[in-house]
Amino acid sequence: MRPTAAPMTRLRFAAPIIAAVALLGISSQPVFGQNSPEDILRTLNYRRGSITLGDNLATINLKEGFRYLDNADTQTFLTKVWANPPGAGSDSLGMLVSAAAHPLSDEAYAIILSYGTTGYVSDEDAEKINYADLLRELQEATRADSRARVARGYESIELVGWARPPYYDKTSKKLYWAKRLRFGHALSDMLKYYICILGRRGVLDLNVIAGVEALPLIDRENPEILSMVSFNQGNLYKEFNPSIDQAAAYGIAGLIAGEVLTKTGFLKGLLAVLPASKKLGAVAIFACFGALWGGFKLFRRRQKVPA
After folding, report:
1. Diameter over CA atoms, the chain
2. Fewest CB atoms less than 10 Å from the CB: which of 83, 93, 123, 303?
3. Could you tell me if 98 and 118 are in contact, meaning their C-beta atoms sit under 8 angstroms apart?
4. Rounded to whole angstroms, how far apart are CA atoms 227 and 276?
5. β-strand 50-53 against 58-61: which pairing, if any?
6. CB 63 within 8 A of CB 114
7. Are the CB atoms for 179 and 159 separated by under 8 Å?
8. pLDDT at residue 165 is higher than 90
């Protein structure tokens, strides 16, 4: 029988997230004191409008219903609200949050922003990739690493399939896809949702932290998310100059299946950080270029405590 989660009021907001934060105390859960997640959320500085990332690297033109948190507030959110280890998000460019769901609800999601100077990624292979074959390779690699996980005392892991098959927009140079993962005997699956924007010298990574319950909401808001973020002049994909700029050693397939291409093993980095617990909920992992260097950064949402 599925454990009964402690009740929580689910709030959906069409108003700006500042209004949402003001209502975060509305919950049927007990009050945890001054340092409760709800109290911490009220201290965050949610920014609106136009946000410049890095040294004029890219710009976010925030749509209504989305807000931006800088690096410091991102770390606070991840560690004190969603209970990640210290240092989570420390090298990010900030975070985007949606007001469409309460931050502690099942449907909540957040987007960690980061940039990797991995070089110019050619998209010449984009139309030649067989995603069904690619999925089978990833599943095989996952099974191999699952055996290694179990041997080391961790839960098994299964790549169930694409939650959303990879899609690349050749005009905007934006790529997204999602995987559905299952750990051990967990009652619900995990979601790894990736959004990558190709630039002149690297990839802008939008790492979506979410559970599978948030997938319909992410799907609805994905067009707005994609339209909000873009590289600035000087960093545009079309400005690549092969005489002075470095090119990456992989293409679109490499961004999606770097684990397979580099032969480093799928999810190796998780062996050291995932607990042998059946209480894992929605987890998302730093995506795109991170996979190519043989390690992942693990973020998770705060879990509800079974009644």
Report:
1. 62
2. 83
3. no
4. 39
5. antiparallel
6. no
7. yes
8. yes
What pLDDT sits at residue 192? 86
- According to the model, what pLDDT value does residue 303 have? 54
Which of 211 and 12 is assigned the larger pLDDT?
Answer: 211
The pLDDT score that the predictor gives to residue 186 is 82
Give, in degrees to the nearest 5, the angle at Cα 290 between 285 and 293. Answer: 130
- Domain extents for the chain? 51-67+105-300
How far from 209 is each of 89, 171, 199, 261, 264, CA to CA, in Å? Answer: 12, 26, 23, 25, 24
| 180 in Cβ contact with 163 (< 8 Å) | yes
pLDDT at 24 over 50: no
To which residue do tokens 């709800």 refer?
38
Q: Do 178 and 194 touch, CB atoms closer than 8 A?
A: yes
| pTM for the whole structure | 0.74
Q: Closest by alpha carbon to 103, among 169, 176, 202, 8?
A: 8
Tokens of 42: 């009220």
Find out whether 305 and 8 touch, Cβ atoms under 8 Å: no
Complete DSSP assignment for 94-138: -EEEETTS-TTSTT-EEEEEEEE---EEE-TTGGG--HHHHHHHH
Distances in whole angstroms, Cα of residue 153 to Cα of each of 186, 189, 277, 282? 16, 20, 10, 21
Whole-angstrom CA distances from 1 to 4, 187, 293 are 9, 10, 41
CA 24 to CA 11: how far, in whole Å?
9
Percent of the chain residues topping a pLDDT of 90: 56
- What would the mean pLDDT of 165-170 be, rounded to a whole number? 96
